[in-house]
Amino acid sequence: MKTCRILLFSLLALATSLPLLATVDDALSFALEAMTPYVKEGFTTREDTWGGDLPAGTSKAISQQLFKGNEYWFTMGSDVKGATISVHVYDREGNLVEAEAWQRDTFAGALVKPKRTGSYFLIVKIEKSPLERTPWGLVYAYR
Amino acid sequence: MADRFINQSLMNKLFFGAFALVATIPFGAPLSSAAEIPPAKIDLKAFPATEVDDVVVPVPSEVFNALDKLGTVAWRSELRQSFTKQRDGRPQIALLLGSVIADGFLAVQAQDGERVKEIGRSVLELARDINVREVVLAHCNSIIEAADRRDWKMVRKELDSTQQDVRRAMDQLKDQELSQLVSIGGWIRGTEALTALVLRDFSADRAELLSQPQLVGLFGRQLDGMSPRMKGHTLVGKIRAGLGEARPLINQDAAISKTTVERLNVITRGLVKAISPGDS
Fold first, then answer.
1. CA distance B160 to B105
2. Size of interface A-B (CB pairs under 8 A)
3. Within a 10 A sphere around the Cβ of A4, how many other Cβ atoms?
4. Do B8 and A20 touch (CB under 8 A)?
5. What is the DSSP pairing of strand A133-142 with strand A118-128?
6. Could you read off the pLDDT of B196-252 as tens digits, one per residue?
7. Residue A53 and residue A78 in contact, taking contact as beta carbons nearer than 8 Å
């Protein structure tokens, strides 16, 4: 009987931990989907991705090495209905450097054609959301 | 929940599910009217240190791709024709595995299908030696098949997947240090090839591709944070010393001179030889 209880609690603990994990994964799958048109244009998607969750109205900086001569698309996604998200790219002096950007509810993207090789900062933001913390995923591709 | 890097291979199933949900959404639409216009300038210091994630290590093909756009590049000249059979513990195998994968990207640039296939087989051997053969088996088969079709984009994709899956497997085995060494080995070999190619036809634009202080800093922090046992490994000690020497050369705002590139080439060539003694 004791073994059954431990097993039951273990299963419950596992079950309660799954939904949030799944939503970050879902957010990433949305980010990947947003990348699809650019892959058709010859961009190669990287296997390394970023993901997490943030409260509404907050942002996060991610530093990334980019090479002059390449073009980079960054696409972000979330699976939370009613959320609005954004991603923008800045150089290390804090200047907005993206050549193009778009935002549509739970999807966002930014295109960068770096003028210099070096470190850049991706600012991801949950603009608004019905949830306390909103899972997000970010992927990038280069050409 | 802590933010995290996530491996894309896990996402494949979800990807197709999501496709059905969002296939009708017009991506690439201009900034929507409801969107906030981003500020033209921000103060990066406003983001606390804990809010800045570590850099993702670019695969060698990112920098090779950029170099390719700067004129003709003698990719074949930098391809190694064979890899050492010597094994000196898991740290050496992890570093060697990263460096061989980097050679795979180089062979793709050279469009050398036979070499790509040989590298695919070498990756499989090394993965077996480090107990992650099953993780890379499908990728290595895909690399060989894609090389036969001369589908270079697919080969690049599979090489990236191979590296990520090996690292993920090591992370799951609580071997984060080995996982980091795979990336470090790849970066060292990629930088050795890059410096040699830049020196063949030097220009400031080509040399600028070596401006990667963030990456060298990241590797330095990773090596400094390794266990005393790992830091005590002779080869890891050499890597640590070599990257310590390279760091001030790369960590500069000024243009990278030919002398600096030559020095970086000597350092990285020495490290590649230490990782893979007896290569040709």
1. 9
2. 198
3. 8
4. no
5. unpaired
6. 999 999 999 999 999 999 999 999 999 999 999 999 999 999 999 999 999 999 876
7. no
- Judge contact between B243 and B217, C-beta under 8 A: no
What is the per-residue pLDDT across B152-204, written as a single tens digit (0 to 9) for each?
A: 999 999 999 999 999 999 888 889 999 999 999 999 999 999 999 999 999 99
Could you give phi then psi for residue B267, rounded to 5 degrees? -65, -50
The answer to whether B66 contacts A67, with C-beta atoms less than 8 Å apart, is: yes
CA distance B152 to chain A (A): 11
DSSP reduced 3-state for A30: helix
Contact call for residues B153 and B165 (beta carbons, < 8 A) = no
| Minimum distance, in Å, between the CA of residue B86 and any CA atom of chain A | 30
Distance of CA B28 to the CA centre of its chain: 29
Which residue reads 């959404």 in tokens?
B25
Record: contact A92-B44, CB cut-off 8 A = yes
State both tokens at B195. Answer: 């410096």
3-state helix, strand and coil shares in percent for chain B, rounded to the nearest 5: 70, 0, 30
Residue A9 has, within 13 A of its CA and on its CB side, a CA count of 5
DSSP E strands: which ranges in chain A?
A: 44-45, 48-55, 59-66, 72-77, 84-91, 98-104, 107-112, 118-128, 133-142
Nearest partner of B165 among B130, B139, B191, B128, judged by Cα? B139
Q: Please report where in the chains the tokens 């097993």 appear, as a residue.
A: A7
Buried b / exposed e along A49-83 (16+ C-beta atoms within 10 A): bbbbbbebeebbbbbbbbbbbbbbbbbbbbbbeeb
The closest alpha carbon to A46, from B58, B220, B187, belongs to: B58
ipTM, two decimals, is 0.86
* Identity of residue A107: F
Residues of chain A with pLDDT under 50: 11-19, 22
Structure tokens at B43: 């103060």
What is the rounded CA–CA span in Å between residue B76 and residue B218?
30
Q: Which of B197, B196, B107 lies closest to B156 in space, CA to CA?
A: B107
What lies within 8 Å, CB to CB, of B20 at 6+ separation is none
Distance CA B186, CA B95 (A): 7
The separation between the first and the last C-alpha atoms of chain B, rounded to the nearest angstrom, is 48
Minimum distance, in Å, between the CA of residue B139 and any CA atom of chain A: 13
